[in-house]
Amino acid sequence: MSKCDICRMRKTCELILFEDDDVSVFLTETPAGLGHVIVTTKKHFENLEKAPDYLFAWAFTIANKVSKVMLESVNMQGLNLLIEVGKVGHPIINLVPRFENDNLGMKWDPKPGDQEELKTVQLMYESETKSMGVSEDKPKSAPQETKSDDKEISDKEDYRIKQLLRIP
Question: Under CATH, what is the fold of the domain 5-98?
Answer without folding.
Answer: HIT family, subunit A (3.30.428)
